[in-house]
Amino acid sequence: MKQESLEIALIRYNKKTWCKSALLGFFIGLAVIVPGISGSTVAIIFKLYDQFLYAVGNLFRQFKKCFFFLLPIGIGILIGLLLGFIAVEKLLAILPFAVVGLFAGLMCGAFPAVKDELKGAKMNGRRIALLVLGVLIPIAIGIVSVGLNASGSDGTNAFATVRWWQVLVCIPVGYVVGVTQVVPGLSASAILLALGWFRSLVDSVSLDFWKSEPRIFLVYVALGVGFLLGIFTFSRLLTYLFGKARHTTYSMIVGLSLGSVVAMFYNPDVFSVYASWAAEGVNVTDIVLGIALFAAGVVGSYLLVRYQRKKDEEARLATCGTDGKTGTKGENAGTEEEK
């Protein structure tokens, strides 16, 4: 019988790696605010995804080691959330297409790093099916969320008067949001948009709203409980699946990451931009900036991927030189599931 999860060595921080983990946390925090961004995809690019999952899933079993690994990520998440609420939301209100274009370009340019995880894998029928399913899931969420928002909202905050059933429903909703933080390609904001809760929750973060409806804090607590349950349980599940069938699991993750790039251009926030263009005329500045920032994002993130590949190759060659071995952990990890 196999172990429930792989034992994964967590990196020891120096100044550079601590800042790298904090930057990962920043993108995870930002992902809650900006529709379509996946913090887990960034974790794959930074080569911290497996360690992130392991540390979250084993926080209570190996508290000291996992806590100190997650500390800079947690700090980054708080900064990302604050910046998202303060700056990104305002930019999305002014030049939404340009902002989405930048983040989509960053995700698109970084996609080769996600695809690298399937290097050497045999793409059989099951893996191709999982990859296609992964592409379709974020796109389907975007289509459903656009449909629900188009038919449902009258502009009233969903939590203007908090009801007991909303508090209970927030626990499973928080669970799903937690899952989005560890599954690349899924977006927390896209899920909340599909429910029609995203704008209501963002607008609720104000002193005036808290004074008028203090029961909103029950909503926050319920979402937080569900979120923690989702992120802990799914981290353990994914760590287990990587140990059993890494390439098969990653086939779906690669699809999810690719589908999320498409979904960034089709969700309620961006669809409202298209609707305003149709009614009032195209905002040329927004489009030109969006195209330019998309291209800049692609180039910038791909250069980062190339730099990371170079560093990984140098590390592999150094390991080969000292051990006299030619195999790597990544190459051997998929051996058993190829049978």
From TrEMBL:
Pfam families: VCA0040-like. It comes from Candidatus Scatosoma pullistercoris. InterPro entries: VCA0040-like. Keywords: Membrane, Transmembrane, Transmembrane helix. This is DUF368 domain-containing protein. Residues 318-339 are annotated as: Disordered. The chain crosses the membrane at residues 22-46, 67-88, 94-114, 126-144, 164-183, 190-210, 216-238, 250-267, 287-305. It comes from the Bacteria. Coiled coil: none annotated.
